[in-house]
Amino acid sequence: MRSDLSDEESQELLKRLETMLDLISRYWGKKNAGIIEMYVVKDLSIWSPNMMPANAWQSVSTGGGLTITQKRSIGQVWQAKAVVYAIADRGTPQHEAVHAYCGQAFGSTGPVWYSEGMAEIGKYWAGPDDKTVHCDPYVIKYLKTSPYKPLEELVDRDQFTGDSWQNYAWRWTLCHLLGFNDNYSQRFKPLGLALMSEQPRISFASVYGTMAKEIEFEHKLFVENMDVGYRVDLCSWDWRTKFQPLRGSRTTSVKIEADHGWQASRLEVAAGQSYSYSTNGEWTLEEDGQDITADGNDAGDGRMVGIIFHDYELTEPFELGIEGTFEAECDGKLYVRCREDWSKIADNEGTVTLKLQAAR
Q1: Which of 256, 113, 106 is nearest to 177 (CA)?
Q2: Which secondary structure element, helix H or strand E, spans residue 275, and what is its range?
Q3: Which of 352, 347, 351 is CA-nearest to residue 287?
Q4: Cα–Cα nearest to 358, from 272, 259, 257
Q5: Alpha carbon distance 153, 166 (integer Å)
Q6: Is the C-alpha dihedral spanning 24, 26, 29, 33 positive or negative?
Q7: For all residues of the chain together, what is the average pLDDT?
Q8: Looking at the whole model, is its pTM more than 0.90?
Q9: How far apart are CA 253 and CA 267, in angstroms?
């Protein structure tokens, strides 16, 4: 690394880069192919323009970075060398180093949505088993206050790299969801490896096309609810549980976990129909915290709440609690959860059993 950072700053950055490189190497299952060469700029005014290519100078001067990868092929054998040019702040060196690793290890970084989304994941990733959102608060604020970008737009082939940090942020949301949500993660790594290896006829549509509605639904929820600390794996939507209506004296019961998002109740509700419910058990809102019932604490945190899913749309959440009745505002499937800030559910503990019956 060539840089105008102080020795202390350089060592701290190198430590972060080596940690990141170890994480992504283990994730993709391939060691870095050679040394990654980097130019990291803190104060551009003390650098000479002839120290880097003109396009790299332009990127750094506008507060960004650029990775230039040269690939040579001899028959089926190829070798690649990547050089990174990056401004020293905003995680840009880590972002560009992901591009360099992918270029050297696989010969390509894949399409723009994958390339830039995964580079952002590499920038934020804290550990091999960590699935927590760690991105900058200003990024979260932008995403939650901006018009939603549909999947079709995010994976469009006509995108170009280096367009804006805002577009990088949107690509990150998709890669983070696919990479850590239990419904999609098993397909995501093989897809990425195929994209970077430029395998023919492999694309987002060929792998996830049949799941597009489900992904779009969960992606919208992720963007709407996320904050630092959010876990998409704990909030994975249950698409597999079978739901059924209840008539007469039939009942259904299900265990609801405090540390998960919306969970399937197995009850298919009908508009205007009333249902009675009761609960048994306690949960906590922190590790080794105070046990509370489904009525929650004095502030209402920890209370059991419900929502109705119908045709990939959700009603507004409504209060449940330890026992009572509710009237369904529309046809659909009932999902419930322990009410807690979405970014804080990971340390919740305990389960509550919910019993449901059509009200007479």
Answers
A1: 113
A2: strand 274-284
A3: 347
A4: 272
A5: 14
A6: positive
A7: 94
A8: yes
A9: 9
